[in-house]
């Protein structure tokens, strides 16, 4: 009996090591051969799927619990923290993950082919870093990279995003912060809506207010506002600046809150409009 127990423990250890080696091979930027991956997968007892999603729990201690709930998950270390990989046979279907993740906070990467596994993990961890913490509950849900692709794209390199904003919003540099904010929110609403009436509706101001501000903007930016490329660059600059401000505000609010409450749960980054500005 003792010999059988020892053999069983040895087999479990071997399987655990094989799974760790498979995780490392899948997440290594150096591509492994198909045959070596197949051998590792057989030893690990984890059939290779066509595509996978990464899961990065906000609390590292929950990784083992999630691996138990998600019986087809493959665990390992990436970026200095424990993460999971789960098969994703249908990239558009994620309902199977939402229920077991309910009440926990985790970032779920986009579905990728096996050769891009590390990409799903990197973006899941990046989304986790952008998402502030707060006391959780049963309504706590995972955030999915799929829902934040434009945010992640714009904020993938914050110094570059700052440089983009500084380059294209330079005409506003000499204004007061209050003047600059009013014109920025107006310009972004105008670019997003396509005209003064749409911008006025989004900002809850009179269309004449928008037209007045647009005349100011035309004086500052000149004929460039009629150039499609300039409008595209301006919208990216304004959106990235808005997103960076929102992330700072949310982390600041959560920092004050968690000074009183110690928690391990997180809430999704909400990408909404800036505070609406009325009047001139």
Any chance you could write out the topology, listing elements then pairs?
Elements: H1 2-27, H2 34-44, E1 51-57, H3 62-69, E2 74-78, E3 81-87, H4 95-101, E4 106-108, E5 112-113, H5 117-130, E6 143-144, H6 149-154, H7 158-168, H8 177-193, H9 196-203, H10 207-221, H11 228-258
Parallel strand pairs: 4-6
Antiparallel strand pairs: 1-3, 1-4, 1-5, 2-3
Description:
The protein is α+β, with helices and mostly antiparallel strands. The protein is 55% helix and 9% strand. The protein contains eleven helices and six strands. Strands 1, 2, 3, 4, 5 and 6 form a six-stranded mixed sheet that branches. Residues 1-9 and 258-280 have low confidence and may be disordered.
Distance between the termini: 84 Å
Q: Which structural class should the secondary elements be placed in? A: alpha+beta
Mean pLDDT: 81
Total strand count, please?
A: 6
Question: What does the overall shape look like?
Answer: elongated
Q: Helix fraction? A: 55-70%
* Biggest sheet architecture: 6 strands, mixed
Over the alpha carbons, how many angstroms does the gyration radius reach? 24 Å
Q: What series of H and E elements makes up the topology?
A: HHEHEEHEEHEHHHHHH
Q: Work out the helix count.
A: 11
Strand percentage: 5-15%
Low-confidence stretches: 1-9, 258-280
